[in-house]
Amino acid sequence: LFLAVFVDEFTFGFRKMGQGANSLAIWFEKLEDKTIVWSANGDNLAPEGSKIQLTTDGRLVLADPNGRELWSPSPTVAGVAHAAMLDTGKFVLVSQNYVNLWETFSQPTDTILPTQQLDQGTKVNARYSEMNYSTGRFHFKLGDDGNLAFYATSNPFTEEQSLNTMGSSGNMSTLRGQIQVLPWHWAGRCIRQTTGSGACGFNSYCALGDDQRPRCHCPPGYTPLDSTNQMNECREDFVPQSCDGSRPETDQFALHEMLRTNWPRNDYAAQTEDKCREACLADCFCAVAIFGGSGTCYKKNPMEGWILMETRIPLIIIESVLLSSSVFVNLLLLLITYLIYRRFRSRDSKLSRLVQINQATGMQTFTYQELQEATDEFKEELGRGAFGTVYKGVLGSEDTNFVVVKVLATRTGERENEFEREVSAIGQTNHKHLVQLLGFCNEGQHRLLVYEFMSNDTLADFLFGISKPTWYKRIEIAYVRGTRGYLAPEWFKNMPISNKVDVYSFGILLVELICCRKNYEPGAEIEAQIVLVDWVYECYLDGNVLSLMESDEEASNNMRRVRRFVMTTLWCIQEDLALRLAMKKITQMLEGAVEVPVPPFSSSFISSI
Predict the structure, then answer these.
(1) Is 406 annotated as belonging to a binding site?
(2) Where are the beta strands (DSSP E) in 258-366?
(3) What CATH number labels 5-114?
(4) In this structure, which topology does domain 457-609 adopt according to CATH?
(5) Where are the domains of the chain?
(6) Are the CB atoms for 13 and 5 separated by under 8 Å?
(7) Does the predicted TM-score (pTM) go above 0.70?
(8) Tell me, what's the pLDDT at 59?
């Protein structure tokens, strides 16, 4: 990616916004949270390998690795000869004659900086959420009449929708072909006109709190998409009805009634309440049925704007009365019905968990048959270990998209959701020296992991081969943000798995990086050196850390950092997980940002089994 440019208070460059996603942005470099003040592509994030460049015709273009244009300044400017980042936080494009052609101040996103002017017609958009810099549901701009107007921009407006603006008098105007001026008290109320739109996101409804401020709530069967954002939208806690016609699902849904609530926007024609219910249940796109009492029937999906009358939730309600004289038959039918209900609920719960993993990590879910075909019936074996066998495969029609498929050995007593938690934790790990997890399969007894294929040797070959890496190369590898290496004691003691296992694993990897040898070498000439972590701790207690670096002149000349690394790794490999520090603290100690306290004594895991 394009390297960041730092000028006094501000930095211009790429900011990571999630796994494999980056935004071209400007941010405060010296603030703790690195506050972003401008972003070019919040609505179209750039994948890894993207670059910003000046084209031959003098245009500044942000392009993905395939050359597809993701963003360029608007309006389009050509003849750019230079680009500069100024102390004011402004990024400018300049011609050969040093004439300003374009600047970020003319195309703001969600922030106005000192010395920045807001021209007439220029919009400032609210971000979608605290950490999501895509265009949000509101914006304001300076109108041609000099008034600063606020707009709701969550949805494209049609002739059936309304636009709310604020004039200089503090009144709210509703524009629907004719001007209506309505007084609006600054108590933060929900808009009460039945033609308006509320402040809440999709699938939520607005109600006033005790302080007369709007509160967004989720209807039954829905949960907040982002619990930290009070004005955010809600998502279904169930698998939505399929529209492909592959299975009848009407009997798996029911309508839940809510009084004195409403979502506007009509869709169905006037009819009775029963007909309104039936129409919504039969329509796979319907999420809400709203009966107005006067014969009007409304529906909407996704639910936007206001408040709900009736919403669907996946519920199989048993309402039949068993008239058989046989109590046994009645009980049997109840049992069968309960088992069917449990099966559907278990299936939907699993699908919901898989969706959550996919959303959190961006990983793909594969079927067992797909991975069978990808590996040609697991034909080419690359290696095997205690936890499974690794095969080479190819995804899609292109023969160059190679992957590695690891078939995990079945672990006795492992629960399905435990495997999914572990996959989710691995999937959120991202480091240039770690092979990336692309997806997984969790089907019946089959547990498979899909990794990117790397043609080079492993880290073990790199560290423990004949040609040793330099000390400074090992330092570079050690600066990580979390990894999964050798197993912590919790894996073998039937204890809950937490992120502290990653800290332990990193400690084992770190001690191997320091000494350039494996943690356990039964063939070591000196018995005390068989278990590396035990030997390292003895050297530390004796004040003789230098003996670890006897054959490494480069590291011997940097003993202050070696000692810091050794003390840090001893904190990582504490058998008592309560004593292990958080990975953020470990990273700060490695980088010298904080002092490393004296580590407590703990026998190594290997020597204790």
Answers:
(1) yes
(2) 289-291, 297-299, 310-314, 364-365
(3) 2.90.10
(4) Transferase(Phosphotransferase); domain 1 (1.10.510)
(5) 5-114, 457-609
(6) yes
(7) no
(8) 87
